[in-house]
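Incident review: delayed structure delivery

Summary: a single-chain prediction request sat in the queue longer than the usual turnaround. Root cause was a stuck worker, restarted by the on-call engineer. No data loss occurred. The affected request and its eventual output are reproduced below so the record is complete for anyone auditing the incident later.

Affected input:
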Amino acid sequence: MVFGPETTQSDFFEGTMKEIVKAYINGANGLVFTYGVTNAGKTYTIQGSPKDGGILPRSLDMIFHHIRGRQYLKMNLKPYLSNDVKKLDVTQVKQEEIIKAAVLASLKEDIEDTSKSTIQSASLCSLESVSSSSCTSTSLPSDPLVEDSVLLDADGTKHQRMQSSVWVSFCEIYNEYVYDLMDVLTVSKNQKRKVLRICEDQGGNSYIKDLKWINVQSTEEACKILKIGNKNRSLACTRMNQHSSRSHSIFSIRLLRLSDVAEPRILGVSEMSLCDLAGSERCNKTQAFGDRLKEAGNINNSLFILGKCIAALKQKQNPTVKHSYIPFRESKLTRLFQPFFCGKGKACMIVNVNQCASTHSEMLHVMKFSATAKQVIQTIHPQTFGYFAPKLVGKDGKPIIHFNANISAEEFPDEDIDSSSEEEVDITIMTHEELLKTTENLKETLVAERQSKLLLEVQIRKEMAEAMFQQLLETEETWSKRLEDMRESYEEKLENKFEMYKEAIKKHAYMCAMEQVEDHYVPIEEFVAEQEKVEDRDRKILDLQQKFGEQSDGLLALGIPNSDMLTAEDKVKSDLEYKEMQRTTEVLRRQCDEKDELIKSLKFKIQKLNETFQEVNEVCRKTTEENNRLTHMVMLKEQEMRDLQNWAKRVLELEATVSLLQEELDESKKHLYSEDLKEQKPKRGLFANLKSTVAGTSKTPVGKTMGKSEDSPTISRKQATFARKVKE
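Output delivered after worker restart:
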């Protein structure tokens, strides 16, 4: 059914929730949840506005209008687990009253802060006025269902008055954690909220452990509870929605139907849950980051799992397709929805549409999801005895009585009659001889089965041992090959490194020698030129000496004193010697400089060689360590081989022991068979002995009785010996 934007809250309630609430009042369970993108009006659909209440206030008003004048005002019967009722004592009733007063008092203490809260400014600023004006104005007209307060029993002939008790709870699923929105401690911002767990009862039904259930006597009290929960709910501002719900909230209403007698009896428990799902969103449009981004991820993930569950339910309806796993347990939300999806209640989905063009792609996905959900045909299982039935428990949690509204106590079968009939059947179904034959056959079958199972166990153990031994051999062979390959690889790498370093050292030494040769090498052309220069200098010296001799002779002839001539000759010689010494000194100085440069270069090369030698030593050390490690691994593998060989020997010994036990078993069986053949007369049974005892006859031979008593210990001893050998 499609509702346009002009639809009022009253028309929407009449078209969707009215039939669900009627079925809920009659004892059926119901689930209503809203689905859509962010800012699509889901919270408004459920809660409405101060002047026009949503489906939740209207449902509460319809429920209390139905039970008006027939309310059970005591709090000694409280919902327990998923579908049971707990009977409270006086102390527990007072505690419930204190909890209710504390929850309602928290609303009065923070009434000023509530006006500043975002959720009240957006949806419900004064739900009390809704309950007093809007809810009363939208009260449904009386119909036969509401006016009828008589409940028919299973036969449809007996009538009894009925009372009702209403209990509500309000929780949220925030970041895949369940929190109680009626927890008074959540009012303080400094205190951390308590995380609740989802558990299952004996019937596999999910429920929230330690969730507060508050007894409400009117719509006003229920609206106050809703207002308190909205104050504690997780809200935040995003780009798409100023008051965006960051969690899935679930408001549950349980209706206890009681018999109107002095000691009320539980006639039934029904539950209706209204879930306000958080809207799906895209982070690039909402500009979410930090906590908002984490919340959006958890919201989208839970909605995605909900879609997977609905798609799996649709696929399950097709008998030609292989049924797939329904992932109810992958999310807290789907885990709570599981009973309703599996036929233990009616589920209804309300899809809210956001007409904004920017959410076109998201709305397309929502419409596809709703089309898939529409094709799911829900099968509501009939409530038979023992199925989803309420159970009354005491203050210690133990059941007091377990019954159904449609079956009275007189209709339960008598256990004594059943047990006596069963005993009578056991006696008369077979004769004494047939029972003895059956017992003997069963004994033989048991022995044969034990023997076959023992042989099968030995065979399986042998096969497993052989397979494990073969696997260990293959593993050892594989590792041995790998170790050998690694050893060869490392040795090859080490040899290559040694050869490389040897070549490098040889090349370096050759280069040093060549440099030294080049430093002292003189080309032959230069040598010849220098020789020619020396010869020219010698010739010049000879010429000068000849000229000097001629001049000396001339001077002697002229009468120059000999002393002056000697002085001039000495000066020339000293000048020549001085020049020669200067040249020699210059040559020696040049050679010294060259030698110093050569020494420096040799020292630098020696330093480089030392560094290279250290690197080679480090590589050798690492190679040695690797070789040691590989040697240790080889030793460990050899130890494993020895263990495997010992194991194989043990297996052979066990096989020999089994063969010996088999032979002894065959001999024992033959011996037992031969003893059975020796017995001539059949054994007297238990009933024959009892009959002879009652009749007072003493015809039983003493010898045969003694013979039987003597044979039975022998057989029991042989069986005990055989069992002891089998155990060994």
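Verification: The chain has 19 helices and 17 strands.
Action items: add queue-age alerting; document worker restart procedure.
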